[in-house]
Write a structure and sequence with these properties.
The chain is mainly α and about 80 residues long. The chain has helices spanning about 5-15, 25-30, 35-50, 60-70. The protein is globular and about 30 Å long. The protein starts with a helix and ends in a 5-residue tail after the last helix.
């Protein structure tokens, strides 16, 4: 495992990839998401950024991916 101080660096690097309008705390409150779905959402958003040719996770991508996961699970948004 990496030393504890690097965890903060990694979190900051990940936060830097998020579009400014992305409020993860607000999204987490609004959409109850399980671990497996979080992985799928993260992958979907990363692939969308790759297709766009940038490294930014956009709010629209997150919401779209969450809705996609909810549909797969038979949940309504």
């Amino acid at each position: 495992p990496k030393p504890h101080h690097q965890t903060g660096e990694r979190e900051q690097r990940d936060q830097d990839r998020l579009e400014e309008q992305v409020d993860l705390a607000a999204i987490a409150r609004e959409y109850p998401i399980a671990g497996g779905a979080i992985n799928n959402i993260s992958l979907h958003c990363s692939l969308r950024a790759l297709v766009r040719g940038d490294n930014t996770i956009r709010r629209h991508d997150l919401i779209e991916a969450i809705r996609r996961e909810f549909r797969k699970e038979g949940k309504t948004v």
